[in-house]
Specification:
Elements: E1 3-8, H1 12-22, E2 27-33, H2 37-47, E3 50-52, H3 55-61, E4 67-70, H4 82-90, E5 94-97, H5 105-118, E6 122-124, H6 132-142, E7 149-159, H7 178-183, H8 185-195, E8 198-206, H9 209-213, E9 221-228, E10 233-243, E11 251-257, E12 261-265, E13 270-274, E14 281-284, H10 293-306, H11 318-336, E15 342-343
Parallel strand pairs: 1-2, 1-4, 2-3, 4-5, 5-6, 7-10
Antiparallel strand pairs: 7-11, 8-9, 8-15, 9-10, 11-12, 12-13, 13-14
Helix pairs in contact: 1-10, 4-5, 5-11, 8-11
The chain binds nicotinamide-adenine-dinucleotide.
The site of nicotinamide-adenine-dinucleotide has 26 residues, from helix 1 and helix 4.
Length: 357
């Protein structure tokens, strides 16, 4: 039977999620909610469902909801996630939350712990590895064609230049760490999907002169060096609209191992595999729309719940999202200490209940 879904936060991304549920046979979209009445009403009309102006009203009117999907935003694109997510978890609902799980590490830890205590599913929209190239790369690893990991590298950013700079933004972006908190969940989630847990982080950050002279608070260039638990090394360079894309486009990831290396370009578009003594094997997926990651990821969440997958084994879980935020806070810690080496805060045990954080 289709899972009944209510979506909270009807901005652009809330609409994207609603379209995914409408087109997925595992889901039935029941209601939408926004504290801004016009937004809720407009979305309700578009999707042919009921509108609510508070989550409390939505939960009261629809106790049968299986999933509450939180697509709010806030400062650093995450400060409005905690309250509705906790309210839905308290009502015993499974929750899918947009990334970052929160902009506050203590809130994120609490959300993961509370979901475990409530014994419900908490997932996060870490959508960047729900792609054809990532699936093929995971198959290469499973087939032992990569071998022991040596290094992982990712370059990710927004297209731009000083000529295209639009001035210091306001609201959610007018904070020093807004780019990091809003965005690093993606490259870190990809790094961890392929390389496993990260134990050590060092970071340098900056912003170009055009931002400095505009009094733009946002640190928009992040250079992050890391060590994985398995001993391999990793590197992320992330920038927000300060440079034009180079090789590999806006999203380029390479993993090298003792038996082979692969590179994914433009997230959804292309996979290349190299192994010693052979011609590289190139797969162009024919997919160019990054938007395809949303239905893929949302379908995986619906599948995991439908199949009653053990809570700790769901794909892109709240705990996985917490890992990315722990790394982001380690990045900030390193930056604030002049690029010092930082040991990442450990994650809660997979089967934890009532743990002390
Ligand atoms: N995974 C991805 O690829 C991806 C891409 C872009 C954005 N995002 C994430 O999606 C989220 C939403 O982004 P957006 O640009 O659509 O945001 P937005 O600000 O346009 O929309 C958020 C909406 O939530 C509403 N809202 C806030 N608090 C609420 C509450 N307690 N109850 C009900 N409604 C509430 C606001 O009124 C607003 O309409 C962000 O967290 C962002 O980081 C993810």
């Amino acid at each position: 039977m289709a899972l009944k879904v209510g979506v909270v936060g009807m901005g652009g991304i809330g609409h994207t999620h609603c379209r995914c549920y409408k087109n997925d046979s595992l889901a039935e979209l029941i209601a939408v909610c926004d504290i801004i009445k016009e937004k809720a009403d407009k979305a309700a009309e578009e999707f042919g469902v009921e509108a609510f102006y508070s989550l409390k009203e939505m939960l009261k009117a629809h106790p049968e909801l299986d999933i509450v999907d939180v697509t709010t935003s806030g400062y650093e694109n995450g400060s409005w996630h905690y309250e509705p997510a906790m309210e839905a978890l308290a009502a015993g609902k499974n929750v899918l939350v947009e990334k970052p799980i929160s902009n506050d590490i203590r809130e994120a830890r609490e959300m993961v712990k509370f979901a475990a205590d409530q014994n419900v599913y908490l997932g996060c929209n870490l959508n960047h590895y729900f792609t054809e190239p990532a699936n093929q790369a995971l198959q290469l690893i499973a087939d032992k064609k990569i071998g022991e990991p040596v290094y992982l590298m990712q370059k990710m950013g927004f297209n731009g230049s000083e000529m295209g700079y639009g001035g210091a933004s306001t609201g959610r972006w007018q904070r020093p760490y807004s780019h990091l908190k809003a965005f690093l969940a993606h490259p870190f989630s990809v790094m961890r999907r392929f390389g496993g847990d990260i134990t050590h982080i060092q970071a340098f950050m900056n912003k170009p002169g055009v931002r400095k002279s505009a009094d733009d608070l946002m640190l928009s260039i992040a250079s992050i060096h890391m060590r994985f638990e398995n001993g391999s090394a990793g590197y992320i360079i992330s920038q927000r609209g300060d440079a034009s894309f180079g090789l590999g486009g806006w999203w380029c990831f390479e993993m090298a191992g003792t038996r082979g290396t692969f590179c994914i370009e433009n997230c959804v578009e292309k996979l290349t595999y190299w192994t010693a003594g052979q011609e590289p094997v190139v797969t162009n997926t024919g997919i160019t729309d990054f938007g395809s990651t949303f239905p893929n990821r949302i379908h995986a969440f619906l599948e995991d719940i439908t199949n009653k997958v053990p809570r700790e084994l769901i794909r892109a879980s709240g705990r996985d999202a917490l890992a990315t935020l722990e790394y982001t806070f380690a990045v900030i810690d390193s930056y604030e200490n002049g690029g010092a080496l930082v040991r990442v805060n450990p994650l809660p045990n997979l089967h934890a209940h009532g743990i002390v954080l």
